[in-house]
Amino acid sequence: MSNKRQVYHTNIWEEEAEADNPFAAKAAYCHGYDVYGEILQKASWFEYLYLMFKGERPTAEQAVLLEKLAIALANPGPREASVRAAMNGGVSKAAHASSLMAALAVGAGQYGGSHEVYILMDLWKQCGLDLEIWTNKLLEPADDSQADIWLPMEHSPGFDPNGESCPTFVLQTLEVLTSVSPGKSLNWLQTNREALEEKVGYPLAMSGVIAAAFNDLEMNNHQSSMLYLMLRLPGAAAHAIEQRDVGWKNFPFFSHAIEITNDPGDKGLPTIDGVNL
Amino acid sequence: MSHKKLLQSEDCLVTEVGKAYLRERVVMRGKDLHHDLGDLDWFAVHLYSITGRIFKEKELELLNYIWSSTSYPDPSIWPNNTAALAGSVRSTASLAMAAGLINSEATLFGGRPLKKTQDFFLRAKKAKNNGLSLEQIVEQEIKNNGVIFGYGRPLANVDERVPHTIKKVQELGFADGECVKMALEINDYLVETRKIAMNIVALDGAIGADFGFTPEEFHLYMNLCFYAGQPACYLDAVEKPEGSFFPVRCSSITFDGVGRRSWDC
Predict the structure, then answer these.
(1) How many angstroms separate the CA atoms of B8 and A55, rounded?
(2) CA distance A107 to A159
(3) Chain A partners within 8 Å of B263 (Cβ)
(4) How confident is residue B1, by pLDDT bands cut at 50, 70 and 90?
């Protein structure tokens, strides 16, 4: 066996050990700030969250924007796919983590999920505030000529191909986030929304608003994708817990709506002599 | 676009995939699960679910071997490490297995290289049939993508699975597969021109292409290829004291960031 001790390298976290136990921390520092000695008393949750991801404290405006964004994302509601996945775990009384893991897996997708935001953040980097580049890129957002674990993108990211007009709650979110944003992206999106929608052929979606907000917070594609996944979990959790008590008899079961086109027909069950089934 | 598609599918799913008529029967891709597929082993049923095809015995044997030969019960390997961590903190078996499994849909190993390699062989086969030479195919791929997934192993580091799998491929009669042959020829070309060799991903991808998987089917088939090592690692951690799976002391976090500072400054 090797005596070489394995270490983790980080620019985020530093710990000091207690004198009596090298595995217990006396103090922990996040980007240089004492977490339990100072941050816990003085920082808000969103100031701390921003610090963790960006390495510096946010300005007051950035902290407000992150908090408002988190409120907008906190509960996509029980119609949304990731919340439905969480509720499947809840109604069946699976472990709590299964609900959140299901919400993360489903909420990672390209239709309204975190990978859509990931793609959008790449587009923000490429397109900036140039309407012409955006309109071209939105029609061909990614090179899908070769297979990848992610499937080819089927719609313009940030817009809803199943939409008619931009939903009121999306407009309200865009309005509020723009009003508190220290950056230019949300304001640009608000100004150019209708032009973009006209070009794409369908309306702006929540993912498009949130990606612009992340750009104003100077988050990159990885940070934005992770935060989008995390910040949508509260609703998934609350709805999953609720369904434990609502119960399976009051939960959708879609069997009646499934129609197969290649039914071989009923071939019967075997008869088992001597067993009372 | 509009919400018409949603209206059409709101309470209706027409499919060829299957349906459970609970208390009566189950249909999988047009066959009765218990009557028609009941004599197949689970592995064959799994592949039938993915592809709608019932593979031949020798094909199943090779596909099964690909899984078996990547079942390393070594808790230093990341998916196993995750499963063992879950065991060490006494999480549940299913959570541990799911967490390990999704760790293997990675870029440095596992899901992404496997799928991209199999896709490369499907494209390479087409290019070869269109008259391109092996050299042209390889150089074009490197020019476009910077790499060919499945190749890049330094010559000194043998991937132990490669000789075992080649032997199995030969024994089962699949050595003449167009993509398997191409995989070995590319290996020879890259060894000669760049001093790099194949790892198991190249061979797996080539077999997948020869067996007619689409990239999505191959992705789903390979999804569980590391899985069998995980349960053993989880159980081993569960049998040891809580929290004792390679515990990390405070000083084993090497901090390379900014110095101490005050929130008030």
Answers:
(1) 48
(2) 16
(3) 33-34, 38-39, 42-43, 57
(4) low
Chain B residues within 8 A of A56 when measuring between CB atoms: none
Residue of A nearest to B246 (CA): A6
| Residue with the two structure tokens 């967490």 | B99
Structure tokens at B208: 């997948």
Residue B2 is predicted with a pLDDT of 83
B265 in helix, strand or coil? coil
Widest CA span in chain B: 74
Question: Does the structure's ipTM exceed the value 0.90?
Answer: yes
DSSP letter, residue A59: P
Picking from B255, B260, B265 by the largest number of A CB atoms within 10 A of its own CB, the best residue to mutate is B255
pLDDT at position A1, please? 62
Q: Is the pLDDT of residue B265 over 80?
A: no
Return the domain boundaries, chain A: 13-42, 70-76+108-234
Torsion angle, alpha carbons of B193, B195, B199, B203, to 10: 30
CB atoms within 10 A of CB A17: 15
**Amino acid in position B208:** G
DSSP annotation of B201:
H
Q: Of B200, B171, B196, B176, nearest to B186 (Cα)?
A: B196
Cβ contacts (< 8 Å) between A267 and chain B: which residues?
Answer: 25, 32, 35
SS3 B153: strand
Q: How far apart are the first and last CA of chain A?
A: 58
Q: Is B116–A95 a contact, with Cβ atoms under 8 angstroms apart? A: no
Question: How far apart are alpha carbons A223 and A122 in whole angstroms?
Answer: 12
Distance of residue B3 Cα from the nearest chain A Cα, in angstroms: 4
Nearest to B112 among A29, A148, A266 (CB): A148
H/E element holding A10? Answer: strand A8-10
Buried b (16+ CB within 10 A) or exposed e, A49-58: bbbebbeebb
Q: Which of A16, A38, A97 sits opposite B262 (nearest CB)?
A: A38
